[in-house]
Amino acid sequence: MKNDHSNITAYGPHPSNAWQQQDGVISLARAAVQPNLLTLTSDQGALELDLAHSAMIVVDMQNDFCHPEGWFAQKGISTRITRRPVPRLRQLLPSWRHAGGRVIWLNWGIRADRMNLPPIVHFMGKRSAAGIGYGDHSPIDHGPAVVQGQWGAQNIAELPAEPEDIRVFKHRLSGFWDNELDAVLRGQGITTLLFAGINTDRCVFSTLQDAAFLGYDCILLRDACATPSPAYVSRAIRFLVAQCHGFVATAAALNTAIASHHQES
C-alpha cells in the first residue's frame, strides 16, 4: 500500500529540522541527512567537511564598505583593500553553492534610530563631532550609513545574493552578539562555518571567535579576507585562529577540493 504524503504538514526551519504531522500523529523525528563529504587541505593538514552541515559566512561585503562612494571610501579608507576578497568570492561562491554548501551574508545593518547601539559603538563609528557615524548621511548621500534596508547595507553589485542564500544583519563586530545568527544556524543544522570578507581583524575575527566559543567548527579562508590594518595584524589573527579557535585554509584550496568533489560524485 502506498503511503499518502499529500496530507503531511511540516513544521520547522529546514527539512532536516522539522516535525511532521499526518493523520493526527505529530512526529518529532528529524529526517536523516545524507552526508556530503569534501576533503580540504588547510594550513594544519587535511580536513573532511560535511557540506550538508556547512555554511560560508561572508562578512560585510556591502556598499558602505566596498563601493567607491560608500561610507568607508568617504572616510578615506581604501576600497582597493576592502575589495580584495571580491575576485576570490566571485570564483568560489558559485562552485560552493553547486557542491551543496550554503552561503550566509552577514552585513552591518543597524536600526535607523540607533537605540540599541551603546556609546562605545557610536564613538568608534564617529570619533568627533564633525565625523560621519553610524546612521549619519555622508557628503555623497546614499542614505544613512549601514542602516538595514538602505543602500549602504546592501551587497555590492559584484557579489549578489542568490535566492537560496541566507541574510543576517548585525549591529556589533560579532554577528552573534544580541542577534539571531546562532538561532538561524542551529535551525538549519549547520555545524561547520567557513569565514570570508572584511575586516579580517574586526568583524570576521570577532564573529569567528564567538562561533568557536559556541561550539561551531571554524575555518578562516585567509585569501578571501582583507583589512586595511597593518599586515602583522592579519598574521596575528591567523596565528590565533590556528592556535585557539579552528583552522586556516584558502579559497584556492577550497576551489580545488570542490573540483575534485565534483569529479568523484
In short, what is this structure?
The chain is globular.
What does the model show?
Helix content is 32%, strand content 25%. It is built from nine helices and eleven strands. The model has no long low-confidence stretch (mean pLDDT 95). The longest helix is centred in the middle third of the chain and has 15 residues. It has two domains: 32 residues, no CATH class; 232 residues, Rossmann fold, CATH 3.40.50. The strands form three sheets. Strands 8-7-6-9-10-11 form a six-stranded parallel sheet, with helices on both faces. Strands 1-2-3 form a three-stranded antiparallel sheet, with no helix packed on it. The protein has 265 residues and is an alpha/beta fold. The radius of gyration is 20 Å and the shape is globular. The two termini are 34 Å apart.
Name some characteristics of this structure.
9 helices, six-stranded parallel beta sheet, single chain, alpha/beta, 2 domains, Rossmann fold, 265 residues
Number of strands: 11
Radius of gyration: 20 Å
Number of helices: 9
Instruction: Report the portion of residues in β strands.
Output: 15-25%
CATH class of the largest domain: Alpha Beta
CATH superfamily of the largest domain: Isochorismatase-like
Give the low-pLDDT segments: none
Strand pairing plus helix content: what structural class? alpha/beta
CATH architecture of the largest domain: 3-Layer(aba) Sandwich
Helix content: 25-40%
List the helices and strands and how they pair.
Elements: E1 9-14, E2 17-22, E3 25-27, E4 37-42, E5 45-50, E6 54-59, H1 63-66, H2 71-74, H3 79-82, H4 85-99, E7 102-108, H5 119-126, E8 166-170, H6 181-187, E9 192-198, H7 200-213, E10 217-226, H8 231-245, E11 247-249, H9 251-264
Parallel strand pairs: 6-7, 6-9, 7-8, 9-10, 10-11
Antiparallel strand pairs: 1-2, 2-3, 4-5
Helix pairs in contact: 4-9, 7-8
